[in-house]
Fold this protein.
Amino acid sequence: MAPPSPAVLVLGPDSSGRSLVIDGGNVVSFGDRPAEPDGAERIDAADCRIEPGGVNAHTHIYSGLAPLGMPPPQPPPENFLQILERVWWRLDLALDREALRASARYYVAESLLAGTTTLIDHHESPRFIEGSLDVLADACEELGMRAALCFGATERNDGREEARRGLAECERFIRDNQSEGVVGLVGLHASFTVSDDTIRAAGDLCRRLGAKMHVHVAEDGCDVEDARRRGFDGPLERLFELGGLPRGSLLAHGVHLNAEQVRRVADAGCWLMQNPRSNHGNGVGYPPALAASERVAMGTDGYPSELEVEAAYLHQQAAEHGEPAAAVEARIAGGHTLAGELFGGEFAPLAPGSVGDVVVRDHRRVRQVVVGGRRVVEDARLVSADLDEIHAEAREQAPRLWERMASL
Ligand SMILES: [Zn+2]
């Protein structure tokens, strides 16, 4: 089912007396006395701020059900690799179509309600590869989320054939995708779970399709050690040397990169995405070298997509590591520039011609959300789908998922 075509919307006036007009999915004016087109739908913004929608620059929609009572791992993990092996690599192995659909609809709904209008996702479900990106795209289109999707190819369960299938899913999706507001990327899990041949194949695929890569890089020291064992200076150098990072690619984390390596990423037109809560939670360290680039954006890495919470956490962590607040603000705003490169158009600041992804919030909560001119949250309620039904589906699927995880 095609989404409803965007209406002419007038939001405001907000607490600073400004109103915003959206027509055809884009902002046509933003100011004190905008000309109001006939038949426009009015959206109240009294005592609120009108601001660009939030961009979550790196996340994992597949982890959407985790807040619904995922049992703690036994025995408790003591390092990054054990966290992956006992939590996330078990969760992704246990995903089937039904569980993924429930995760996606739940995560996307809660993200929109929190004012996130774009998700840049990195997906893995090794026992449900073919068609998995359609499940995510369908949820995004149904609920009205803008998204960049990829399958993170890996060899960690079934070797080269597993990676081949992961890349084939990216290719199929990029070629076939017709979902409104959704684009496809090529994905690799990380340097340390793929062979040289898989990196070369992924880079070739990017060049054939004109697509960008999305990959985890130097999240933990184990990624660096692995690349060195394979004869490279590090995972970044390995990915570059094997042709796996075409211009504009997206590199999550970079915790264990130095300033020179971070500048090399920026010089190649690529992005780094910092994930402060996840980095801290996984005990992988803080990435001080990211200050060497302006091409850095912020993600939640599978945590709920509450960007204000993530930003507050980043401010606190950055201050502890001596980073100026202005640099952190620029990093949080980086997601809008990144979204512009992926989807086309200007995402911030809101001005005539910019993309109509807009959030209206008061001091307590998100009141209105518009994505590409489509109203998806009205008066703090999801209107693009039935939230009660989404929650019921999530509550039904979550225990099934925990059972399958326990049996692995
Ligand atoms: Zn991640």
